[in-house]
Structures are given as structure tokens and as C-alpha cells.
Amino acid sequence: MRNFFASRWGPVAAGGAIGLVASILQLAGNPPNMGLCVACFGRDIAGALGLHRAAVAQYLRPEIPAIVLGGFLAARLSGEGVSRGGSSPHVRFALGLCAAVGALVFLGCPWRGLLRLAGGDANALVGGLGLVLGIAAGVAFLRSGFGLGRAYPLHGGGAWLAPVAALALLVLLGARASFGPGAAVFFSETGPGAQRAAPWAGAAAGLAVGFLAQRSRFCTMGAFRDLILTRDAHLLRGVAALTGVALVVNLATGRFHAGFAGQPIAHADHVWNLLGMVLAGLAFTLAGGCPGRQLVLAGEGNADSGVFVAGLLAGAALAHNFALVSTPAGAAPAAPVAVGAGLLFCAWVGFAHRERTS
Amino acid sequence: MIRHIDARGLSCPEPLILATRALRGPGPFEIVVDNPVARENIVRMLADRYGLAAAVRESGREIAIRVER
Q1: How large a percentage of chain A has pLDDT more than 70?
Q2: Fewest beta carbons less than 10 Å away: which of A49, A221, B8, B50?
Q3: DSSP state of A331
Q4: Spatial CA neighbour of B49 closest among A41, A227, A206
Q5: Which residue of B has its CA nearest to A305?
Q6: Cβ proximity of A264 and A108 under 8 Å
């Protein structure tokens, strides 16, 4: 089957769509410069489920499960849905954990990094530089033979696990389910977790983004990785489209404010903006996809990506429970230890998995 | 003698790296992948960077990409 989205316009369409719907979601109530962020929304979901107790970051963000379902639908309709896994799942879980910690020290996944940039947040340039450095380190490992091993077809319907879990989250949200006084599901009453667009809007946006991202293979990590590895700018056009569209919407609606200081849900601690994203970028590269791409792959039936996403949620919860998440005042006191440990772990993963596959 | 490279179960960029290595060697080769992303990436790289047209043969989930030189 011909896939239009495999052409050079595919990533442009997907990136443009992400920039557009994220900007609209910001106008419709999602937090500023955070219309769509897999790391931030993942930690909100972790909070809603009671995996952490930060009362300002608890909401069953419908965008995230909807992206999984969008990826699932696109894969099924194109005959690409396939249940596979078994490529070092335990390492991938830990990489998801590291990625979440790094992203929450910076305060955003690469998608939000681009949205922050489009909103004028210059700290995103620092984070972006860190991301590219982390990816470059990952590429060096790839060049030296890094790989987490082969994945194999899985039997028994494992492909349905992530979409069913995603659907369950949407049902919990739709029902505003409460399992008793003081029990989950938790909903923030103040803070970023209380800033939200209508659930149906978030779900519709996520479905569209997941669908387009599956068809086009949109991936922010892949964009820079391919540029460094093979000088291929195919996916990078999507990154440019995302940023460009969000920038145009921000300029048109008076939401572009250039500078380092006073940016929404951000801090100007340059060292840790940089190193947080070095860690995240390296973890994404070793795991083979940015968080958005991992959601889509999980929807397709890739169990390894599903495990990475589980690690992302666990990492977000741990980051809050151990006070590693940055605040507008800057990085947390314990952040250097966590980022340092994460970098050491990722370096070990990179060195230890340089097995030649023939 | 055509060289065969088994890239089944590997996700990009690993199949791409294996194909690049194969291009450094002499003669034709065939690389087998089992996901459409790897096929797209390898075919695109061969066309864009090396001006090579690959013959793609699918059987079930497996996709064989043959490069004649």
C-alpha cells in the first residue's frame, strides 16, 4: 500500500498538526506552552492514579491515551498492527524512568520543548541543545554497535494491551470515577493539573496526533538522530513544522513572549535545563524513540515501547516522590544526584550493549 | 555470491546502519527486515544518498530489500 505519509510531506503534516492542536489546546485551557507534553501529561496521569502525591499535578490527561489509540487505529487500518516485543524490556523500563527524570528536570518532553520555543521561552534553546547533545551521544553508541537485541513476534494478543489500558483511562476520566473518599482517581484543584481543555477536545486532538504520527513515523529524537547519523532531514521537517505552526498561532494570539525569565512552568537554571535534556535525549536514543513516538509504537502493538511508557510513568511518579522535579525557582537540590546517576546508568547501558548483530 | 543480512526484529536505525555497512563492501546484497519503517528508511536512504534503486520483495511480514551494484 502506498503511504502518502511516508513521503517528505508526512512528517510535515504530523508536526504541523501537533503544533496546531497543541496551540489550540493551550487556548482552550491546557497549561501555557504545554498544549501537548508527554512527560508532563504522563506525570499528571501518574498523579491521578495516586502514584505520586503532588496535588498540583493530578489529572487523567486524555491526550496521552488518545495518542496510543490513534496509533493503534492507524496501524490496524494500514495492516501494520503487530504484536512484538522481547528486546531487553527491563532496560527499556529503566530508560523510560531516566527519560522522565531528565525531562522533568527540564520541565518538558521534546514536544513541549518545541512549544516552549514557539512561545518565546529561550530556556528551551538550552534544553534543546542538551537534547541534541544527548542524541549525539546516543548516536556514538549506535555507531559503535549498540543495540538492545532483536524483538520477536508475540503470541496471545499482546498488541491489545496498550490500547485497552488507554481505553480504560479514558473511561475512568469520562466517568470521573472515584473509588471512595481519599482514593483515586485524583483531580488537581489548583496548579497545572487544574488547567485543562475539555476532555473531548483533548481526546480528539490526541487521536488525530496519534494517527498522523503513526503514518508518518514522526519522532523528535529520530529527527536529530537521523540528521547526525545519515544527514537525513526527513523527520526534521516535521520538527520545523511543529515549531513554525505553534509560533504562528502564538504570534497571532499575542502569546509570544521572548526571554529567559518568568516563562510559564519553566525555570532559568541553565546547567540543569541542559543536563536534564542530555539525560532525556540519551535515554530516548538508546530506547529508539521520543516519548510521543513510544506512545504510538505501544499503540501499534510494540510491547517494548509499552514497557518504556510504563517506565516513563513510574519515573514521573518517582521524580515527584523524591522531589526531583524542578520548580519555577530552579532545579531541585536532589536533581544533580538523580541526573548524574541517570547519565551513569545510560552510559553503562550504551557500553554494555555493543553486541554485533549479524 | 550475494550477501544476506538478517535485520529481522531490529528497529531503526539498526537496520539502516547494517545496510550502510553492507554498502561499504563489494557487490550486491540483500537485507531482510520485518517492519515497514525499516523498509521505508532503507529504500529512502539508498535513493537519496546513493542514487540506488532497490528491489523490494515481501513475503508475509518479511521484506527483502535487494541492492544490485
Answers
A1: 99
A2: B50
A3: S
A4: A227
A5: B11
A6: no
Q: Do B12 and A288 touch (CB under 8 A)?
A: yes
Least CA distance to B58: which residue of chain A?
A: A1
Q: Using CB atoms, pick whichever of A6, A84, A232 lies closest to residue B45.
A: A232
**What pLDDT does residue A158 have?**
81
Asked if the model's pLDDT at residue A63 lies above 50, the reply is yes
- Are residues A220 and A111 in contact, defined by beta-carbon separation less than 8 angstroms? yes
Helix (H) or strand (E) holding A311: helix A303-321
| Predicted structure pTM score | 0.96
Longest dimension (CA), chain B: 29
Integer Cα distance of A307 and A316 in angstroms = 14
Considering chain A, what is the average pLDDT of its residues?
95
Longest dimension (CA), chain A: 57
Contact residues, chain A to chain B, C-beta under 8 Å: 3, 6, 80, 82, 84, 87, 142-143, 147, 149-153, 217, 222, 225-226, 229-232, 234, 288, 357-358
Which H, E and C letters describe A36-55, residue by residue? CCHHHHHHHHHHHCCCCCCC
Bridge partners of B4, per DSSP, are B30
Q: pLDDT tens, A234-257?
A: 999 999 999 999 999 999 999 999
User: Would you list the domain boundaries of chain A?
Assistant: 2-352
